[in-house]
Amino acid sequence: MKKHYSIAIDGPSGAGKSSLARRAAAALGFIYVDTGAIYRTVGLACYRAGISCKDAEAVEKILPRLNIQMRFNAAGEQRMYLDEEDVSSRIRMPEISICASDVSTLPVVRSYLLDMQRRMAKNSNVIMDGRDIGTVVLPDADLKIFMTASSAARAQRRLLELQGKGVKANFEDVFRDIEYRDKQDSTRAAAPLRAAEDAVILDTTNLNLEESYRLLCRTIKEKLGVQPVG
């Protein structure tokens, strides 16, 4: 194995990126970085401060005051902290998803977080997922994957995920959130959601979680020659 590998996984909300990337990283002994969680944490901070997540000037003023940290628990799970509070569950609420999508359209926020993300990949083997990892954050990644699925399939998966965490939600609201984020992410001026030219496209619409994971593992083995164990 070469000294360091970087795997970039991009795709729309609910495509399964986080669950699959987290599992593959653990099986490879890589560090998993969910960049979407970082944007969600910025969105939560703005939400709590009563700041419009579309107001670039107001958001820019709050950024230097934010204490955002990514930590890993004993099980290797990524946890997000805002001012020393573990907000890992709170940032998954539908209203914060909207805030995350809004702040992610702001160039000032993307610039602010870019160095943080690149530092994570500089000295470690990483699997990093998000919206612009292969196109902007890690353009020289050893493997770029664009993971997608139909809007309806993604909404159903997200609904089950929320319900599994005890969060009250319904399909219509989650579907509307998915559609909103898709439009925001794909049409924003700063680093829009798109597949890198050299990305491998994985469509998981008709695959369950285990089948999707096997597809991801096969892709990693075929492209990099390393095999996730587990």
Shape: globular
Distance between the termini: 18 Å
Give the spatial strand order of the biggest sheet. 2-6-1-7-8
> How much of the polypeptide forms β-strand, as a percent range?
15-25%
Whole-number average pLDDT? 91
Alpha-beta content class: alpha/beta
Oligomeric state of this protein = single chain
Radius of gyration, rounded?
Answer: 17 Å
Counting DSSP H or I runs of 4 or more residues, the number of helices is 9
Task: Give helix % range.
Answer: 40-55%
Low-confidence stretches: none
How would you spell out the order of helices and strands?
A: EHEHHEEEHHEHEHHEH
| Largest sheet geometry | 5 strands, parallel
For the secondary structure, the number of strands is 8
Tags for this model:
8 strands; alpha/beta; 3-stranded antiparallel beta sheet; 230 residues; 9 helices; single chain
Describe this protein's structure.
It contains nine helices and eight strands. It is of the alpha/beta class and 230 residues long. A five-stranded parallel β-sheet has the order 2-6-1-7-8, with helices on both faces. Strands 3-4-5 form a three-stranded antiparallel β-sheet, with helices on one face. The chain is globular.
Gist?
This protein has nine helices and eight strands. The protein is of the alpha/beta class.
Topology:
Layout: E1 6-10, H1 17-28, E2 31-34, H2 35-49, H3 56-62, E3 68-72, E4 78-82, E5 85-86, H4 94-103, H5 107-122, E6 126-130, H6 133-137, E7 143-148, H7 151-164, H8 171-187, E8 200-203, H9 209-224
Parallel strand pairs: 1-6, 1-7, 2-6, 7-8
Antiparallel strand pairs: 3-4, 4-5
Helix pairs in contact: 2-4, 4-8, 7-8
